[in-house]
Amino acid sequence: xxxxxxxxxxxxxxxxxxxxxxxxxxxxxxxxxxxxxxxxxxxxxxxxxxxxxxxxxxxxxxxxxxxxxxxxxxxxxxxxxxxxxxxxxxxxxxxxxxxxxxxxxxxxxxxxxxxxxxxxxxxxxxxxxxxxxxxxxxxxxxxxxxxxxxxxxxxxxxxxxxxxxxxxxxxxxxxxxxxxxxxxxxxxxxxxxxxxxxxxxxxxxxxxxxxxxxxxxxxxx
Length: 221
Known about the structure:
Layout: H1 8-11, H2 13-16, H3 19-34, E1 37-38, H4 46-50, E2 58-62, H5 87-100, H6 111-115, E3 118-122, E4 127-128, H7 140-152, E5 159-163, H8 165-168, E6 180-184, H9 201-211
């Protein structure tokens, strides 16, 4: 049984015992034994570990983990300290500087955002080395759909940042009018110029939080 170590354990207990989740676990047993899979097994659920349910102020949805060695550690878009930020993350830093005047950080580890209440969730939580979307069909999307539905039930307002197609596909799950949806193109170099640059989502997120009496996110790294 998965152990997150906070209230997510109780909120998701029915998922962890469901047949489809058992199939995910069985698939992962084989995949980790026969292939190089990212992130390391102990990091798969880091997004939930770093950001308990009641602490969520914003949700940043990614696609699947980075598939290069040493990059993924269970928080979407984030890389371990000392790892060169990938292009999408570099574009996020460009937008952050343009939007809020925050200079480019020294590394790409976004743990501090997660600790402040940004749930940094990928729609798929594992991937084979060098094979983007290789685990997109093993059941993870049902699991992450449930996480979004559970957050949608919350009365306290949440900002949902939906960047790119896989994230925007979750929009239909966010029906509670208390919440605020910000959506645009993915920060990938392939699409960032189609609406990600200039979106001002970092400042808009904080403006919404403050308007509802919630402390803003310090996006500085």
